[in-house]
């Protein structure tokens, strides 16, 4: 099985879908000549031409709006926004158009489009380039939300997103772009709504979102080696739809749960999952559901402050140990 970087897996998925369906095209700022801010679209302009790989003006609302219109007419646009923070400029088109049109038109019109967005901390890009808005998009009915953490899932879920008839918010953590992983050759699309159990365990369930799935796995190894605690690590992979069954079954086995995310704590993904676990697995819990999230501040530019503002392995370890204290 070949090994490749996360960005290369995304590039491979885009290339394969462009080859397979002439209705698929890409559009976004600097995705053509410059080959993408994070080089995900490298080589695609040369291979498919300006009609299929379109550089756009710096206007996120216009980019997404054009994508919505193209999707309504039968094309399958893959829109790239340079960072997730810039999606704030396109919320009208994302929420009032992309997410709502199929419902407003009684399913007579579909909006098969993908909006790809990188985000996340760790590169000293400041508060306007480094946030995680999974919770905001999760809140919107009509949108599918993908948060792949591995190269294999990035490729499989992007292929699935492009083929889906619904608008998909595809969130890519900037730290993950350079991470390597095995990717099956000639692999087909993945399935939305299927979580992955990254590590089996019997003592505590740790659910990690996007990059935090990797952090959770590292924390689980530390818990095992240093504290004799065997954690089960679950990577949801998609948040809409959510594979809640896998999470609940794990909590029923371990009787403890920790949610790890890089977004803010108030109204976050962790808050949503903690409520769902409490509602559906309350009788199985031996401790309150723990949450590990980013500091409740705009992301700092200073490297030491930035590192202090998002979760690390030790924070997950401490949260897991805390669930074993007498309540």
Fourth-tier CATH superfamily name of the largest domain: Thiamin diphosphate (ThDP)-binding fold, Pyr/PP domains
Q: How helical, in percent, are the residues?
A: 25-40%
Stretches where pLDDT falls below 50 for ≥5 residues?
A: none
What is the mean predicted local confidence, pLDDT?
Answer: 96
What form results from the Cα inertia axes?
A: globular
- In the CATH scheme, the class of the largest domain would be Alpha Beta
String of helices and strands = EHEHEHEHHEHEHEEEEHEEHEHEHH
Q: What is the CATH fold-level name of the largest domain?
A: Rossmann fold
What is the makeup of the main sheet? 7 strands, mixed
Number of helices: 12
- Number-wise, the strands total 14
Structural class of the secondary structure composition?
alpha/beta
Give the neighbour order of strands across the main sheet.
3-2-4-5-7-6-12
- Report Rg: 20 Å
């Amino acid at each position: 099985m070949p090994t490749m970087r996360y960005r290369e897996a995304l590039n491979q998925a885009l290339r394969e879908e462009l080859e397979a369906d002439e209705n698929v095209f890409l559009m976004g700022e600097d995705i053509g000549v410059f080959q993408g801010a994070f080089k995900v679209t490298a080589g695609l302009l040369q291979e498919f031409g300006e009609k299929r790989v379109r550089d756009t003006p710096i206007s996120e609302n216009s980019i997404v709006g054009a994508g919505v219109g193209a999707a309504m007419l039968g094309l399958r646009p893959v829109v790239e926004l340079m960072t997730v923070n810039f999606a704030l400029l396109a919320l009208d088109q994302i929420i009032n158009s992309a997410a709502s049109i199929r419902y407003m038109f009684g399913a007579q019109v579909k909006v098969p489009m993908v909006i790809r967005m990188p985000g996340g901390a760790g590169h000293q890009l400041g508060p306007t380039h480094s946030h995680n808005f999974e919770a905001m998009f999760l809140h919107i009915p009509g949108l599918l939300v993908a948060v792949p953490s591995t190269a294999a899932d990035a490729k499989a879920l992007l292929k699935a997103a492009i083929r889906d008839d619904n608008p998909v918010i595809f969130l890519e953590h900037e730290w993950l772009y350079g991470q390597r992983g095995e990717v099956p050759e000639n692999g087909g699309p993945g399935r939305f709504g299927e979580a992955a159990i990254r590590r089996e365990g019997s003592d505590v369930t740790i659910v990690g979102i996007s990059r935090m799935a990797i952090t959770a796995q590292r924390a689980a190894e530390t818990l095992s080696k240093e504290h004799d605690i065997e954690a089960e690590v679950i990577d949801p992979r998609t948040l809409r739809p959510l594979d809640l069954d896998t999470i609940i079954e794990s909590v029923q086995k371990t009787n403890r749960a920790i949610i790890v995310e890089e977004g803010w704590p108030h109204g976050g993904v962790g808050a949503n999952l903690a409520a769902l676990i409490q509602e559906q697995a309350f009788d199985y819990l031996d401790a309150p559901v723990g949450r590990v999230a980013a500091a409740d501040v705009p992301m700092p530019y200073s490297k030491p402050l930035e590192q202090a503002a998002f979760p690390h392995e030790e924070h997950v370890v401490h949260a897991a140990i805390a669930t074993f204290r007498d309540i």
